[in-house]
Amino acid sequence: MVRALERAGAAVTLTSDRQAAMDADGLVVPGVGAFAACMEGLRAVKGHEIIGRRLAGGRPVLGICVGMQILFERGVEHGVETVGCDEWPGVVERLQAPVVPHMGWNTVETPQGTTLFAGIEDERFYFVHSYGVRDWTLVTNNRTRPPLVTWAEHGGDRFVAAVENGPLSATQFHPEKSGDAGAALLRNWVRGLKR
């Protein structure tokens, strides 16, 4: 991820320092493995507080793979329900496709007005996951702009592939493993940091 962001034009610091994470122009939250383990690790270093404070101040955050999933209200894996960061309502649950994990290249359905996918709306991205947000309906008031949601499908099962919501963006796929399309997406996100 560090090398992919550097190729996208970012000066990157890999850190566990809370103040450095708060002060950065952008914060990337990667995640690997299970929802519960990721949340346990994040809470152990109070990372959920850093994410919340950054977003409250309008500071950009990008979640990737499980790093996206933990931004939702909760996750259910192997019968274990875990509270997430609750930045978005929704439940991360096992995909209902005939073959799981979903591993490989897939297209996505991007919304109008996307900035993450600008110029790469019809490209393919690399996914490796067994869980996702399959059913997501947002209720917003008239003063709140709803998040831009990108969808994908695997084995007939639709799931959230990416979300753009003000300073908070996330992808279920791995942009750092998605070739030129992933590099373009990261460049789009890095460009947004400089606004």
Task: Offer a few descriptive terms.
195 residues; 11 strands; alpha/beta; 26% helix
- How far the N terminus sits from the C terminus, by CA atoms, comes to 22 Å
Mean pLDDT: 94
Q: Can you list the strand order of the major beta sheet?
A: 1-2-11-10-9
Number of helical segments? Answer: 6
User: Strand tally, please?
Assistant: 11
Bin the strand percentage: 25-35%
Give me the secondary-structure category: alpha/beta
The assembly state of the depicted protein chains is single chain
| Largest sheet properties | 5 strands, mixed
Poorly predicted regions are none
Shape, per Cα inertia axes: globular
Order of helices and strands: HHEHHEHEEEEEEEEEH
Query: Rg from C-alpha positions?
Result: 16 Å
Considering DSSP H and I runs of 4 or more, what fraction of the residues is helical?
25-40%
Q: Could you characterize the architecture of this molecule?
A:
26% of the residues lie in helices and 32% in strands. It has 195 residues and is of the alpha/beta class. The two termini are 22 Å apart. The model has no long low-confidence stretch (mean pLDDT 94).
List the helices and strands and how they pair.
Layout: H1 2-7, H2 18-23, E1 27-31, H3 35-44, H4 47-56, E2 61-65, H5 66-69, E3 72-77, E4 80-83, E5 88-94, E6 102-107, E7 124-129, E8 131-133, E9 148-154, E10 157-165, E11 168-171, H6 179-193
Parallel strand pairs: 1-2, 2-11, 3-5
Antiparallel strand pairs: 3-4, 5-8, 6-7, 9-10, 10-11
